[in-house]
Design goal:
Blueprint lengths: L8 E4 L3 H13 L7 E2 L2 H11 L3 E5 L8 H12 L3 E5 L4 H9 L4 E4 L4 H34 L16 E2 L5 E2 L1 H8 L10 H7 L8
């Protein structure tokens, strides 16, 4: 995940007293809170601006965009972990919430210990997910760069040229280089050196 500082949290809550209380609790727990906003539209703007390590998003927000829609947009475009804050969650809302792939839920009213536990787990999950994606990308890149030779390869028993798919005979070096990332350097092995230059080669 390409986020900013891992200890920053943006709060999205349209109840002013709840937002202020949450901000104070987060700061006591050691988190930085660069923004507290009350609408989904503001949440997207602040997410783009600060790229926080995590966002706490109330599901029900005033205005034209609720927390679920804002979370979906933020998750899909910025890949920032979301923890939902809610006083209730019916089955329909829960199904919508799953689409945003939240990293946790905080139920109102909440205690500070609940906040600590949920956020600790959420940040741990985010770190593991970031590591997994990084390893997956590295593996994909490595696989994209690797070309392998498979199947039976016709090779001349005398000159050791290889017959390609078009029926033409190619030097081994050319054939392999065209089908892999390998490059050849040339030298003479001990057996050939002794055979070709017996008068000068005396072995190791």
């Amino acid at each position: 995940m390409d986020t900013g500082r891992k200890d920053t949290i943006i709060v999205v809550e349209d109840e002013a007293l709840v937002a202020l209380d949450l901000q104070a609790r987060l700061r006591r727990l050691g988190y930085e809170v660069p923004a507290v906003v009350s609408t989904g539209e503001q949440a997207i703007l602040m997410a783009e601006k600060f790229k926080p390590g995590l966002m706490i998003m109330d599901i029900v927000l005033k205005g034209g965009m609720d927390g679920l829609k804002a979370a979906e947009i933020i998750h899909s475009t910025l890949d920032i972990p979301i923890v939902f804050l809610t006083a209730y969650c019916d089955d329909k809302t829960l199904e919508r919430a799953k689409a945003a792939e939240p990293f946790g839920y905080i139920n109102k009213p909440f205690e500070e210990i609940d906040l600590r536990v949920v956020l600790g787990i959420a940040f741990h999950k985010a770190a593991m997910e970031s590591e997994r994606k990084e390893l997956t990308n590295k593996l994909k890149k490595a696989l994209d760069e690797v070309k392998t030779l498979r199947g039976l390869i016709p090779i001349c028993a005398s000159c050791k040229k290889i017959r390609n798919d078009s029926g033409f005979w190619q030097a081994v070096e050319q054939y392999v280089e065209e089908r892999s990332d390998a490059q050849f350097t040339h030298g003479i092995c001990a057996d050939c050196a002794a055979k070709l230059y017996p008068e000068t080669y005396k072995g190791n």
